[in-house]
Design brief:
Blueprint: E1 3-6, E2 16-22, E3 33-39, E4 45-50, E5 59-64, E6 74-75, H1 81-95, H2 104-113, H3 120-148, H4 156-179, H5 189-200, H6 207-217
Antiparallel strand pairs: 1-5, 2-3, 3-6, 4-5
Helix pairs in contact: 1-4, 2-3, 2-4, 3-4, 4-5, 4-6
Length: 242
């Protein structure tokens, strides 16, 4: 297998990766994809970490040059890779959001410590953050019960991801505003969250993709025009191919 992938989470210490390979160019693009588990230790796999502005390097470039992949490591049937990818993303989106780092309790404690607990604007912003976090928590509980009942993850993951990204940004913005200039220096946990927050709107599918999913699958809006839908991948103009 030969190819390149950018923005692979934690690839520099992962034992296995997920690869979507085009195995049949004679069918429409979503139908000709097969999923494989990739042993990250085999010859031909090179991982290059990407340093981010928050100091972390958990995103990576992954280069594959004639890397061997066995059919025994195939996930699902041949040509079933798109379903595997969508299912994986739905689980990932539901998991992204608040959960690591400082949360609502730490934010409340910060406002009290910096004597902003009686500031009307700060309290209003805090209330908005707590509301987003609570709605996200309840949505996750509903999704968990649906999975226990045997229903696969659905578009609720997109809603949870949108709210989670908004909550993290609002939480970090408020914390930095409350801390003032002191929050912009040193190794402050709020500063790390502030610098990390923009990436939440990108990883696991951008906010724009999530809104498209919700618009089509929840609100019943017409999908965006797809002139290459149903066209064999080999006949799709190269500029339009993903």
């Amino acid at each position: 297998m030969t190819g390149q992938k950018v923005w692979s989470n934690r690839a520099h210490y992962s034992s296995w990766g997920l690869v979507l390979a085009r195995t049949d160019p004679s069918v429409p693009k979503h139908a000709g994809i097969t999923a494989f588990a990739l042993d990250m230790t085999v010859p031909g796999v090179e991982v290059r970490p990407l340093r981010q502005m928050n100091g972390d390097a958990h995103f990576n470039e992954v280069f594959m040059t004639d890397a061997p992949v066995a059919d025994a490591d195939r996930i699902g049937d041949v040509g079933d890779g798109w379903r595997v990818a969508i299912t994986t993303l739905m689980h990932e989106r539901g998991a992204l959001g608040p959960g690591t780092g400082p949360g609502r309790r730490e934010l409340i404690d910060l406002l009290r410590a910096r004597e902003h607990a009686d500031d009307a604007l700060a309290r209003q912003r805090l209330g908005a953050v707590v509301s987003l976090l609570e709605v996200g928590r309840l949505t996750n509980l509903r999704a968990r019960e649906a999975r226990r009942a045997g229903r696969p993850p659905g578009p609720e993951g997109s809603g949870a991801k949108l709210r989670g990204a908004a909550a993290i940004k609002a939480m970090a913005d408020l914390a930095i505003d409350v801390e003032g200039l002191a929050g912009l220096v040193g190794e402050d946990e709020w500063l790390t969250l502030f610098l990390t927050a923009p990436s939440i709107s990108i990883r696991g599918g951008t906010d724009e993709i999530q809104r498209n999913i919700l618009g089509e699958r929840v609100l019943g809006l017409p999908p965006e025009p797809r002139p290459d839908k149903g066209v064999p991948f080999k006949d799709v103009p190269k500029s339009a191919a993903p």
